[in-house]
Amino acid sequence: MSSGTAELVARALPLTGPGAPGRPGAARRERLGRLRSRAAPYVLIAPFFLLFGAFGLFPLAATAWTSLFRVELTAPEAREWVGAHNYARLLTDEFFWNALANTVLIGVLATVPQLLLALGAAHLLDARLRGRLFFRVAALAPYATSVAAATLVFALFYGRDQGMVNWAVGLVGLDPVDWQNGPWASKCAVASIVIWRWTGYNALIYLAAMQTIPPELYEAAALDGASRWRRFWHVTLPGLRPALAFTGLVSVIGAVQLFGEPLLFSSGAGASGGADHQYQTLGLYLYEQGWVNLHLGRAAAIAWAMLLLLVVLFGVVRLVRGKGVRR
Amino acid sequence: MGWRTATRPRGRRRRALALLLAAALLGGCATDPPVPPAAGSGEAVDGSGRPVTLTVGVYGTFGLKEAGLYDTYMRLHPDVAIRQTSLARADVYYPQLLTHLTAGAGLADIQAVEVGNIAEVVDTQADRLADLAHAPGVREDDFLPWKWAQARTADGRVLGLGTDIGPLAVCYRKDHFAAAGLPTDREEVGRLWAGDWRAYLETGRRFAARAPEGVAFTDSASGVMAAVISGANPRYYDAEGRLVVADNPAVRAAWDLGAEFAEHGLTARLQQFTPDWDQGFAHGRFASIACPAWMLGYIQDKGGPAGQGKWEIAEAPRPGNWGGSFLVVPAAGRHVEEAAALAAWLTAPEQQAVLFERRGSFPSAEAAFGLPQVREARHPYFGDAPVGRIYSAAAMGVPVAPVGPKDGLVNQILSDTGMLQVDQTGRSPESAWRAAMKAIDNALDR
Predict the structure, then answer these.
(1) Cβ of B22 and A95 within 8 Å?
(2) What is the ipTM of this complex?
(3) CB neighbour class for A162 (10 Å; exposed up to 12, middle 13-18, buried from 19)
C-alpha cells in the first residue's frame, strides 16, 4: 500500500485521539466511533477494489459490451449491433472448437505430469539433501525465466532438421519427429515447455506445505509400523490438500489461458498455432481474431467464452466434490 | 507510451484511453520511447535544443536511420530533430498503428506501412492521414506508376509515399548448380527458365536428377508460390475491389506450381523466416531461391562467410514484386507540414538511391534507377552481380495489379496455412487448398 493510501485512511479515520472530553453528545460520538470501527476495514480494503474496478471489472464489462457488436480494429467507432451473433457463431466455428480441444488436450498434457512431478520433486527436496538451498533455487529458476526466452530456446531444441531433441531421437535409432507439424508431437512439445516452467514453482508450494505437517504425525505413524509409502499416502497427502487444491486451481486457470508458449513456439506460425492450427489454443485464437484478423467483437466473444468455460469447469468440480473446494 | 493528448477534446481522449487500455489488455505492450514533453509554446524542445522534433515510427530494421538519412536531414535542417521508434515485429506493429490511428493518439509524425496493409490503410484511415501528393518536393513522375497507385484513394489523394519495393530475381548457388551439371553463368542460368515459371520447375527436375547429397533445388513451396503470384495481374482482388482469390486462375496456377515443387521433392521443406530456414542458408541445403531485392542482405547475413562467392543472381522467369513499404503522415500530428516535407525528402530518388547503396532496399522511385548508385551497383557477396540493372529491369516489368485491403493476410494464409502443409506434412494440394480457403473466409469474416 502506498503512503498516499495510508494518508487517506488516516484522514478518514482520525482514530480515537483525546477527542474533546466532557462535551455533550457522547452517545452520538460513540455511535460515530462504532461506525468508524465498522467502516475501517472497508476503507482499508477500498484501494484494492477501486483498482480492481478500474483494471478488472471495467475491462470485463467493456469486453462483454464489445462482444455484442460487429466491430473492427480499423474503425472501432463504427459499431454494428449484432446481439448474440458473435456467440452463436462460435457454436459452428470449427476453428473455435479446434482451439477448445487443443486447449483441453494441452492442458491435460501439461497439468497432470506437472503436478505429479512437482509432488515428487517436493518430496525429494523435503529430505535432508546436501546443498538443499541450491536445489530449491534451481527448482524456481525456470519460473523466473521469461516465457519468451524459454520458448525461443525450446523452439530451437525442437527444430526438425537441426534440433537437439531430434538429434537425441536419432541416437536412439528412431526417425526424426516433426515437432512443429505433428498434431500430437506439437502439443506435447508445447506442454513440455509449460511443465518445465511451472513444475519447480508448484514443487516449492508443496514443499512449504509439507514442512507445516507436524513431525509427530510421522513419528506416530512410524511407531505404528507404517511404511514410507503409507506415511506419504496417509500423512503427507492429507496434509497437502489445501496446497493441492490451490495448485490445481491455478494450473487449470493457466491452462485455459495458455498463450505465450504456443505463440512463440514457432516463429513462423504466430497466432495461427501451426499450419493446421494444431496447437492453437483459445488464447491464441482470441489474439488472432482480435489483432491479426482485426475482428474485435468476435475476439471479445471468445474472451467471454473462456471465462464461462472456467466458471462451468469449477461449477462441475464443486458439484462433483459435493462439499466444494476448500478455501 | 507517448501520448500527445494535451490539447485534444475530452471525449476523444477518453476513447483513446479506453482503446489503449484494450490494446494493452488484449495485445502486446508498446515499446515506444516517450515523446518529449510539450513546452508552453506547444513546441517540443528536447535535448537537441531544436524547436521541431519529428518522430518516425517503423517496424523491424527499416534502414532509414541505419543509412544515415536522418543525420543528413538534420544537418540540412538545423531546426528539426528526428527520432525513430521501432517495433521489431511487423505483425505487432500494424494492429498497434491502427489502434493509435483510430484513437488519434500515440502516433509518430511519420509512420511506415507495409505493402500488404497499404490498401486497408488507404481504405479505412483516409480521413486520418495527410494527402502527400502535393507535399513540397513530391513528383508523381519520380515513382513507379504501380507503386504510386497503391497508396492513392479513389478521389485522387495520395496517402503514402513509396520507400522501397521488392522486385524479384532468383538467387542460386553456383557450386550446387555445377555439381548437378547445370550452367553457372548468370546469363545462361537466366535463359534456363526465361519467361515461364514452369521452366524453373523443369530446371529443378534436371537438378534433382543429379543433385548433391542433401541439397534441394529450392527452399520452400510457399516461396515459389509467392514469387509466381507476385507477378500476376490480378492477384487476390479484382479492379472493383472484390476478393477473387478463390476463383482467380492465376492464383490457382501459382498454387499448383508450388505444390508440384513439393510433390516432386524439389524443396528443402523449410518455412521462410524461421530458424530452420536460416540454418538452411548456413548449411547450403538448397540451391536456389526466389529472392526479392530486400532478401539479399538476409541471405548474406545467414549464409555468412562460408557462402561468400558461392551465390549468384539471375533474372526471375517473370518480373514480379514481393514486399515493399510506404511512409504515411497522420493528420493528427502536431507537425504535419514538417513531417510531410521529411517524408517527401526521405522518399525522393536521391535518398532512395542512398538507401539502396547502404541497405539494399530497392528504390520505388523510378527516377533513382538512372542514378549511379543504382545503375552501376554490384553485389560483392553475389559474385559481383549487377544488382542495380537486374532489379531495375524486374521493377519495370511488374504489372499494375490492384492491391486489396487484406492482401497481407491472404498471402500469409495461403503460404503458412495452405502451402506449408503440402510442403511439410504431405497433405494433398486439393485438401490444403480447401483448408486455406476456409481459413481465409474465417479470417475475413465472410
Answers:
(1) no
(2) 0.83
(3) middle
Q: Per the CB < 8 Å rule, is B416 touching A275? A: yes
Q: Tell me: pLDDT of B2 over 50.
A: no
Restricting to A residues 254-293, those with a Cβ less than 8 Å away from any Cβ of B are 266-270, 272, 275-277, 286-288, 290-293
> Given CB atoms, is A161 within the 8 Å cutoff of chain B?
yes
Place of cell 516452467: A197
pTM, two decimals, is 0.84
On whether any CB of chain B is under 8 Å from the CB of A39, the answer is no
User: Which H, E and C letters describe chain A, residue by residue?
Assistant: CCHHHHHHHHHHCCCCCCCCCCCCCHHHHHHHHHHHHHHHHHHHHHHHHHHHHHHHHHHHHHHHHHCCEECECCCCCCCEECCCHHHHHHHCCHHHHHHHHHHHHHHHHHHHHHHHHHHHHHHHHHCCCCCHHHHHHHHHHHHHCCHHHHHHHHHHHCCCCCCHHHHHHHHCCCCCCCCCCCHHHHHHHHHHHHHHHHHHHHHHHHHHHHCCCCHHHHHHHHHCCCCHHHHHHHHHHHHCHHHHHHHHHHHHHHHHCCCHHHHHHCCCCHHHCCCCCCCCCHHHHHHHHHHHCCEHHHHHHHHHHHHHHHHHHHHHHHHHHCCCCCC
Residue A39 in grid coordinates: 467502516
| Contact between B25 and A294 using a beta-carbon 8 Å cutoff | no
Measured distance CA(A248)–CA(A254) in Å, rounded = 10
* 8 A C-beta contact, residue B264 and residue B204: yes
Decide if A187 contacts A278 (C-beta within 8 A).
yes
Q: Are B296 and B383 in contact (CB under 8 A)?
A: no
Q: Which amino acid is at A292?
A: V
**B-chain residue closest to A163, CA distance:** B276
Q: A294: which chain B residues are within 8 Å (Cβ-Cβ)?
A: 95, 98
Q: pLDDT tens digits for B250-294?
A: 999 999 999 999 999 999 999 998 888 999 999 999 999 999 999
Instruction: Give the whole-angstrom CA distance, residue B318 versus residue B54.
Output: 41
Q: Which amino acid is at B109?
A: D
Q: Which of B404, B99, B445 is nearest to A73 (CA)?
A: B99
CB contact under 8 A, A276 and B417: yes
- SS3 of residue B369 by DSSP: coil
**Cα B107–chain centre separation:** 21
The size of the A-B interface in CB pairs under 8 A is 101
CA distance A75 to B16: 13
Contact B124 A272 (CB under 8 A): no
Where are any strands of DSSP class E within B245-310? 286-292
Of B26, B425, B442, the CB nearest to A299: B26
Residue among B224, B186, B217, B216 at smallest CA distance from B313: B186
| SS3 assignment, position B286 | strand
Residue B29, pLDDT > 80, answer: no
Q: Which residues on A lie below 8 Å from B427 (Cβ)?
A: 276
CA–CA distance from B226 to each of A48, A220, B134, B392 (Å)?
53, 74, 34, 20
